[in-house]
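User: I want to check something. If I give you two sequences, will you return the structure for each one separately, not as a complex?

Assistant: Yes, each is folded on its own. Here is the first sequence with its structure:
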Amino acid sequence: MIQRRLATTLLATLLAAGGTCAFPAATASPATPATAQAPSDTYYEIFVRSWYDSNGDGTGDLNGVTAKLDYLKSLGVDGIWLMPINPSPSYHGYDVTDYEAINPQYGTMADFERLVREAHKRGIKVVMDLVINHTSDQSPWFKAAQDPHNPYRHWYEWATPATDLKQISATGDPLWHKSPDGDHYLGVFTAEMPDLNYDNPAVRTEMVKIGRFWLDRGVDGFRLDAAQHIYDDSETDMDSPVVLKKNLAWWREFHQGIDASNPHAWLVGEVARQNPDDLPPWMASLDAVFNFPLATRLVDSAKQERDRDIGATLERQYDAYRAAAHGRFDDAPFLSNHDQERVMSQLAGNPEHMRTAAAMLLTLPGHPFVYYGEELGMRGEKPDEHLREPMRWYRTGNGPGEPTWEGWSAGDGGAVSVEAEQADPHSLLNWYRMLIQWRRDVPALREGALRNWRDAGEHVAAWELDDAQGDVLVLHNLSGRPQTVTLPMQRFRTLLKHSLPGTTIADGHLRLPAYGSAILSSG
C-alpha cells in the first residue's frame, strides 16, 4: 500500500510540474472524484456477459460491472457503454423481449440502479444500448402481432400481395421472413429480429416512453443500435435521400422526446457507413455517431506505418459536422467494437502498431471509445462469439469473477491480462492510462478544433488542435525509425507531452523516436 501511494504521488508531482512520465504508475489508485479533475471524455464498451462474474455462475453480471468500477476509474474513463442488458433469448441481447426490464442472467433492476449510483459517485456516466430498430420474434408484441386483428399487428411491417419477397435487405440478407401463419414480415437482420413499423405513431410514442423510463433511472444517454436502419431496409434504400430524411426526422423526434426527462442526455448512433460524407447529416438529429471511416483509416495508417491523410480528412469532416449541427461539434472515434475483428488481430499482433493506433485515437477531439480488453491487447476474429470473449483478468485465466460462459480462441498468453499488465510499467494497459491522462491534462485534445498539419512527412500523422487556451500540435511517428520534423518559426516550441524517451526539440526541429508521440504547444 505504501509503494502504491508513493507511485501515485510521484506521478501526480510529475504531471503538476508539466512534465511527462513515459508510463503512469502501474498500480495507480482510483482517480480522484470527477469534481476535482478535468474530464477525459473517454468511454469504454462493456459486454456484461464477458466482463466480471460476481456470483460464480459463469456469466458476467451487473454487480460484476459495479465491482470493477475502480479498475475503470484507474484507466481514466468517464463513461461506460453497456451492451444490451434487457431480457433476450440470445447470448448477445440484440433481440429484446422486454424493454423495461433487466436480463435476469445479469441481475435485477435494483442491481442496475446500484451500478448507476456507484458509477456516478466516481464521475462515470452510464450509456445504455437501446435496440429499437427491431424486437425479438419472442417479444410479446410480435406474438400478439400474429393475429391480424390485434393492434400490435400494425407495430410491424407485413408483406402485401404486391411485395417482392425475394428482396435483399440493406445488410445483404433476405428482407422478408415467413411467420408461423404463413404471412411474411420485414426483418433487416435475421428472421429472429422483426423490424418495427415507425410509420405507426403508437410505436414512436412507445419508444420515447422507453427512453424516458431509463433516463428516470439515472441513465446518462443511449448508444442507438442500427440507427440508420429505422427506414433503411432494403439494399435499394441505402443511398436514398428520402429514406435518410425519414431516419433523421425520427431521431430528431426521439431526441426532443427524451429531452423532457433529461435535456443533457447524450445520444450516439451506430451509422455504419464507410464514406465520411455520409455522417454529417446525422449531427443535426443526434449528438454524435460512431466514426467508422476513421476507424478504418487509423488502423490502416498504423498497419502501413504511413499517414493515410488523417488530418486533412478529419478537418473536412469536422467542418461539415459543425455546419450540419449549427456550430456544435462532437465525434465518437473508435478502433473496433463487438462486431469487428479486434484491433490487435487486425494489426497481426504487432504491439508497436497497436500503440500508435491507440495514441492516434486518444489524441482526437470528441468522445473516443475503447472496446473492453483493447487496452490489454486482446485478440479476436470472427465468428462473433470470439470477438466477445471474457475479459482477461488473471495470468492463469482462472480466478474470482472470471466469466466462463465462453472460452478463449485467440491464443493470448498470461501476459495479456490485467494482473500481468498492472505490474508492468511498460504494458499496453499503462500506455492507455498515460494517453487518457493526457486528455485530462490538455483540454484541446478533447475540445479543440482540428486542422490538418501538412509538414511532417508520410510517416508522421499530425494535426493541430485549437481551443480557448491556444494551439497544440499533435504528432505520431508511425514508423520503426526516428523521424525529424521541422517546426514553424516561433510556433510549437514547448514539449507538453511525449510518450517515449529521446523525444527532443532543438534548433527548430522535433526528433520523434520510433513509434513515439508528442504534443507541442505555442507557449
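And separately, the second sequence with its own structure:
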Amino acid sequence: MSTYSARLAALREQLARDRLDGFVVPLTDEHMSEYVGEYAQRLAWLTGFQGSAGTAVVLPQEAAIFTDGRYTLQVREQVSAEDWQFVGVPATSVATWLGAHAAEGGRIGYDPWLHTSAWVAEASRTLAERGAALVPVDTNPVDSVWPDHPAPSNARLVVQDDAVAGASSAEKRALIADWLAERKADAVVLSALDSIAWVLNVRGRDVEHTPVALAYAVVDADGTAELFVAPEKIDDAVRQHLGNAVRLRDRADFASALAGFAGKRVAADPERAVAAIFDSLKAGGATVLPLRDPAVLAKATKNPAEIAGHRAASARDGAALARFLRWAETALPAGGETELSAAARLQAFREATGVWLDSSFDTISATGAHGASPHYKVTEESNAPIEPGQLYLVDSGGQYRDGTTDVTRVIPVGTPSEEMRDRFTRVLKGHIALATAIFPPGTTGGQLDGFARRPLWEAGLDYAHGTGHGVGAYLSVHEGPQRIAQPFYPGGGPSEPLRAGMILSNEPGYYKAGEYGIRIENLILVEPREIAGGEQAMLGFETLTFCPIERALIVAEMLSPAERAWLDAYHARVVAVLAPQMDEAERAWLTAKCAPIA
C-alpha cells in the first residue's frame, strides 16, 4: 500500500471478492459534507488527489477521476495518468461515463451513505440502458483495504453562546416546529452538520477547518429534538445547554431509529440527506417528504448578532492579513521564502490575535504557475520557492467564535509585467462592478455573475469557477443556498434569490496556465438600498472585508472615475477599520498603501 497504484490494485481485488464489477468513490461523508474528516478521505487515500471536490470510478480494466474546472491542473499534478483517466465535469457526469464504460451485465457498487437518491436514480437509469446494475454495499470496499483506516473524531462538542448566535436553540426549534405544522409533517431529519450545529447552537472539532460535530438530529413537530451523537462527545456543559427538550441518543442508533416512523410524515432534504436515509425511512413505513432542510435558508440569512460578529471577526482578521502583506512586501523579494513558509507566517499573524481558532480552509499559498490552479493546495512535495518576477496569490481565512472569514490578495514579487497589471485591473473592475451592483428582490446570484466577468469578456478572457459562495457564521466557509455563479460553472446549479442578511464572497479571477493566477476576494453582505426617486425596494452589497488591494498591480488609466472613487473610498475605510489596531510603523505603511489612486 506504499503506492497509489498498489491501493488501486488492492481495491480491484476486493471488488472481485465482493462480486462487483466496479465501484464509485465520492469525496464526501454520510452528511454530504464538502469538507470531511480524515476517516472519510477515501478519494485522497486511493488516488492522491488533494482537492475538495471530486469522484473516482474504478472498473476492472480502467479507472477515472472526475473533477471540475477548478482542479484541471491540480488533478494532473497529483494523480497518475498511468492509472487514471481525467474527466471534466459537468461536461461529462459520473453517471453518463458509467453508462458508456460499465460492462454489459456488470454490477457497479456504491455506498448508499455517500450518495443522494437523485444520483442513485440517475446512475441506475444510465446503467440499466447498458444492461448493468447499480448495487448498494453494506461495507465500503475502500475501507476494507485501507490499512490503519482513521476512526471518526471523538472530540467533544462545545456550546455556541446565544448572545453570539443571536437566537436560542429553543427559538430556532420553535420556528422549525411551525414549518412542520405548515406542511402537516411530524418530524424533519437534519443530516447536514452545519444545520445541526446552527439549530442546536453547538459547534465541534470533527472536521478540519469547519467547526461541526459528527451527528444527526430529528426535530419533532412539538419543537423537541433527538440528537444522535457518540456519548463520549457530550459533557455536562453541553448537556445542560441542550436541556430536556433535546434527547441524546448514540449516533450508532440513528440508522435503526429511522425505522421507528411508521405511519409518520417525515421531511428530509434530497440534496443534503443521503440515499440510505430515504431508503430506511421508506422501509420503516414512513411517508417521506422531500423538502429542503428548514435550517438552510434561516442559517444563510444572518441575524443582527451574527452580522455584528462577522464585522468584528473581519476587522481583526483584516489587520492580521495586512501585517502579513507588510511583511511579504519586503520578505518575498529578498528571497528564501516558500509557499509553505509564507502560509505559516500568515497563520502566525492570525494566531497572534489570541482568539483565532482555526483556518476556515487550507490556505491557498500559490506562487507563479501554482497560482493558475484556483484551488491549489501546497504540500511538502509541491512546495515552491517564491521568486522575483512571479505573482504570489494567497487565499485564506480564519475561524473565530464570532465569524468566519475568507479573503484573497495577490502580491507582485518584484516588478510585474504589463500583462499581469492589465489582467489584475480587469479583475478589479469586475470586483467593483459586483460590489456596487443594485438589484431588485428576487434577483439571483446567477443573474449578477456576469457583472464581474464583463471586463474580462471584453478582452476575450474568463475564469472557470463561480464568482461567489455563501459564508457561514462560525460555520462552513462554503455555505448554501446563496451563490453567485452560472449553472455551468463549478459552484453553480439552481440559483437562490438573494436576501438581506446573506453573506457571500466576491471573487473574480484570471488564470494563465503555467504562469500565474489572479483573484481579488472580499466578503459582501446583502442589504436593503434606498434609491432617491426610486419606485421600489432594492438590494445592494456592503463590503465586509478590509485589507489593501495591491496598488502596484493597478493600471489607473483603465479605471473609470466611478471605479477610482470606489477604490479610494474602500481604502479610506480600510484605514479607518484597521489603523486603530496597529502600531505607529504599521499605520504609516497602511496609510501609504491606501492613499488615493494616482
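Because they were folded independently, the notes below concern the second chain alone. The chain has a mean pLDDT of 96. DSSP finds 19 helices and 27 strands in the chain.
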